[in-house]
Structure formats: structure tokens, C-alpha cells
Description:
Blueprint: H1 5-8, H2 18-25, H3 29-36, H4 44-57, H5 63-66, E1 73-79, H6 91-104, E2 108-114, H7 121-131, E3 134-138, H8 145-152, E4 158-161, E5 172-175, H9 177-190, E6 196-199, H10 206-221, H11 243-250, E7 258-261, H12 264-276, E8 286-291, E9 304-307, H13 310-325, E10 334-337, E11 340-342
Helix pairs in contact: 2-3, 2-4, 6-13, 9-10, 11-12
Amino acid sequence: MPPNFYEWIDPLSRRPSLRDIAAIAEVSLSTVSLVLNDRPGISGQTRSRVRDAAAQLGYEMSLSTAAPSSTNAIGLLIEQGSMHALLDIFYGDVIRGFQTEAQRLGYQVLLHMYDRETEGLDTLRADLAEQVSGLIVANDGDITPQMVVQLEDAAIPLVLIENHVEGHRLPSILGDNFTAGYTVTRHLLSLGHSEIAVLRGPAKYSSLVDRLRGCLAALAEAGLALPEGWMPAPTAKHPQKGYWQMKTILDQPHRPTAVVAISDRTAFGAISAVREAGLAIPQDLALVSIDNVADSVYTYPALTTYHIPKHEMGVLAMQKLHRIIEGKPELAVKSVVYGELIVRESCGACRGPGNRPELP
């Protein structure tokens, strides 16, 4: 098995990085990347300062770094475990938005699926530097913050989708995940529910963690705590997310009156478990979720959910990456795309699609 990321660099003997150059030249990491790739938009004085710092550190530029790339290819990096994302009802829309905008701007999209079990980060960095003009990292999971920091040092323009690294000013496009979790939980509270369970997602995905934080914040504001057994861990035992989690909740001696599913896909599995138990939604159990994928309106009953503008997130990420590649001034910001609550029948509110009830 090839070395993993943590074995890739010996801290005592590592080569100078772009971060080292940026620190000495007192410029941003993106400025270093633009200078070493001979991109426009940087003053002569700053350009000289960056090159002097690189020479001072003995930084050796690879062929792919020393000359501007002629490729119009853009890399899309996802974890191997998210291969289904290409067809996934949430990430499929994100990727389609990114792909459509890339084609409009004249780029070809190359997909790279990272498998932490078989692929070393050094090989990944070398391949990407030779093949693409810029890189989109979609989601996190097996693509850890430490790995993103190393990709940041690779002199490749980089934009993150549903991913961010604390302490690093990387351009990121995020759904409003905390607000999503908070809003759907507040909606249940506004309908009179005080016994609310949560079907959470894997902790390695920051977007799902943020959604959970929003749910817990709303419950805490209402003075409520989740009983043991009402927030079961996700499991891969069933092809439908949420199925076994909901079965765990339904097996409790005292059941909640409402459930928050961390995603629509999780809600779909939960609905199957509820039906299997001979119960009805929302009569026996109210259900809300997050994403507003296309299929959410076709469940029975139709799913109350929080809309995350997936296609638009992909488009914005590609537009931002294009500006960085072109050397145009681009402030590194964490952009949060607003969403909205879509009220349907599964919560028991008996309101039309798209209506947003008043919160207490």
C-alpha cells in the first residue's frame, strides 16, 4: 500500500513549500501561485519579491510550475466513496452546475476520485499539476483538511464546494447548512412538537455536522435535550440512508412525535422504515429534512425540506475558479448560499408547497 498523507512529508527534511514563500514575501498563497505560474495581474515589484523568496529558499519549480499550462482542463476532485455523487440526487446537481459553467467558459472537466487506501498524495499532486489549470474539491470526507492544505501548496488554483479549512483563506462555496438544520427544527417546534429525534450523518462531512449543529442549537434554545437513542449513528447496513436509524428510534420504548433527517436521502430511508412499522407520516410521526432534491416532492407524503441551491453552487464555484485562473483580482472568501424552507405534507402543517410559516 502506498504511503498515506501523513507519511508523505518528513517535517524535519521537507522541501520548501508555497506557504514558506508566501510568508517570506509577505503575500498571499494565491499570489505566489499566480507568480510561479506566470499569470497576469501581479505587479512587477510583487513578482520580484516572490521570485526572490523562492530563490532564497531554494524552491525548485517543476516543469508544470515553471511555465504556464496550455491545458484548458479543470479537475474535479471527490473521494472514492462519493463515486455515486455523479448520480446522487444532491451532488449530481452541484456537479451538473459546475460542468455546465465549465463548458460555457471553454473548459474540459477531468474527474479524479481519490482513494485513500491506494493513492498517495504526492502522486495525486503531481498528476493534477500536469493535467489541469485549476481544481474544484467537492465535499470533504476522506479529503481531509490536512490534505486540502497540501493541495493549496501545489500552485494550482483551488476552490472548495461544501468544504472549508479553518485558519486557511481558501475560496469556498457552501450551502447554508447551519441555518438549514436550525430552521427545519424550529419549524417542528412551531408546530407544537417537543419530542424531536434527529437522524444525523457521518461526522467526517462538515456540511452534515453544520446541519446537526443547527438542529441542536434550535433544540437548546427551546430548552430541550435529545434523549439517549433519539440520535442514532448512521450505518451502511442498508442501501437507503436513514432506514436503520429510523428503525432504532422506532424500537425505543417511547417514540418521538417528530424527526429531523439530516438529508433528503436519509429521509427517504426513514420513510421506508416508518411504513414497514405500519405507521403513517405525518399522523404518527412528523418528518422534515434538508436539500430539496427533485424526488422530495414525489414522496408520499411530499417531503417538507430546506432548499439548498445545488446547481447554483456549482456554477458559482466554476466562475470563481475561472477568475483565479485568469489572474483577475479575487478575494478569498467563504461564500454561503442562502436557502429556504419548503413546507409540504410530511410535517403535518397542511400548507402549500413553498410557504414558510411564522416561527415563534
